[in-house]
Design brief:
About 70% of the residues lie in helices and about 0% in strands. The chain is mainly α. The longest helix has about 30 residues.
């Protein structure tokens, strides 16, 4: 598999493959940011209810699933393009 997956670094010379890597990175950042946001909300809200473990709402879980889906689609596209590049080489 192409080194772009294991060592993204400077991707300017990779064109579309670099664009895909950046899309994967942005999607991963969005998932992490959303998880941090929800976990922060849960900690703030859960502090008043001792003994009760706060949990994600259905809306929050659905949003996270959507964000993870975008990440997986971007990752699959990068993986496929990288594999095709390796095959062509």
């Amino acid at each position: 598999m192409s080194s772009v997956l294991s060592n993204p670094g400077d991707l300017s010379h990779l064109g579309a493959l670099g664009d895909l890597q950046r899309a994967v990175d942005r999607a991963n950042d969005a998932v992490r940011a959303y998880v941090a946001e929800v976990e922060g909300e849960l900690r703030r809200c859960g502090g008043a209810q001792q003994g009760a473990r706060p949990s994600w709402s259905d809306r929050q879980s659905a949003t996270l699933a959507d964000l993870q889906g975008v990440y997986l689609v971007a990752l699959q596209a990068l993986w496929t393009a990288s594999k095709e590049l390796d095959t062509a080489a």
